[in-house]
Amino acid sequence: MSALARITSPAATVAPGGLTIRGIAKSYGPVRVLESIDLDIRSGECVAVLGENGAGKSTLSSIIAGVVHPSAGELTWDGAPYAPRSPAEALSHGIGLIHQEMRLLPELSIAENVFVGRLLMRNGRLDRAEMNRRAEIQLRRLGLDVPATTKVGTLKVAAQQQVEIAKALTLEARLLIFDEPTAALGGDETDRLFEQIHRLKSEGVASIYISHRLEEIARIADRVAVLRDGRLIAVHETSTVPVRQLVEEMVGRSVDRLFPELPQPQAREVLGVSNLTSAAGAFHDISFEVKAGEILGIAGIVGAGRTELVRAIAGVDAVVGGEVRLEGRTLRLTQPRDAMDAGIVLVPEDRKAQGLLLKQTIENNVAVGNFDLIGGSGWVRPNDKRAFAEKAIASMGVKGRPEQLAGRLSGGNQQKVVIAKWLARNPKLFIMDEPTRGVDVGARAQIYEAIVALARSGMAVIVVSSDLEEVIGLSHRVMVLSRGRNRGILDHGEATHVAIMERATT
After folding, report:
1. Rg of the chain's alpha carbons, rounded to an integer?
2. pLDDT band at 13 (very low <50, low <70, confident <90, very high)
């Protein structure tokens, strides 16, 4: 049966309380983003919606949630016409959207963020105690054991994502749209989220689940819809579809392998870390080495100290003991510039907050941190900056012009800009923290190729990832951290899901 033959017929019946989508289209001027989408979301089921960046997933979810208005087509909800003019109107119908990009207010508490726009009142006064109580119930369900009075700005990325999810769970919605909800979560946090989605399903709540982590789909979804270039390509009535088939439907071509073949590492040590200990207590007594042409993966659940470790090696976070050696020379790392000058660069886990200036052009983003290479005499001429940026973005195949704003690029192209910026320095050690978070499968494959190409060139590479498939497929060896300690380093053939998780949970 062809993919097109699996598309749900518009005449299909929908259980009471479901959502029907008929002929939905969206255009921005001459650009058509969605074209004649027909899909049903039934009460108590989870439908996964897959596709590359630009396939139309976010536009479709935004239409359902009242953020965007369609150019054509109609929706029905509970059997009645449904055309929300705003997110507030969608919420009044019991439909909520958990955005891929976190929209929290850092200076407010967790409870205030959870109930912003719908603050609880009692006798004409703000009922903070009840807000804190309700927020903490959802936080505990998601495994986040912090007071609801905590300022959101003090939380790590994963914890902020859990707050975003807790915010949605308090809506008592009957249809929740999850847009990349696990992008910042580790295994334990993902498991708890899935438990909550299954609980909601048993209560008749429907879900639309958007994710680039295809291995999650069989665990959480009842059916799978695939979009490509704004069109509905396939609807599978089961979630047990081979990942390769889903990838090929998403990209429209055959995919031979997701991960490139790894080169043979050299014997020469590039990075040596001995007994490194965090000043903040995030990791203790960590020792390992990375050789030229080697990709070392770092795995572990959220809170294991992975990000803090690589930030320390990159001169961002302070240490109180141990040493970092690069090509045999002990480094004194008091700031990121010390690491950069030595030949160490870091692509951070939160590219929007730490890796990019979203309101600046691609050209300016590439130039920041590289002015010493562009204007060696102390002057940066516009033509030199433009030429430098053009060469950098061409090296990563960035789909964008130097004068474009970075914030208007897709997640995959934003990540390519960050990588391109640091590639221009020709570093000795390239560190990538969650290199494909929020990146579609096509751009992900290009980033994998770039990582392996770095190793082929003789560079030492460290990859931190919450995606076990990724860290296993990309790495010559995998170091597993748990509670800030090194629980063992596994060779490529030994690094299985079971072996990693056994060590990550000790």
Report:
1. 24
2. very low
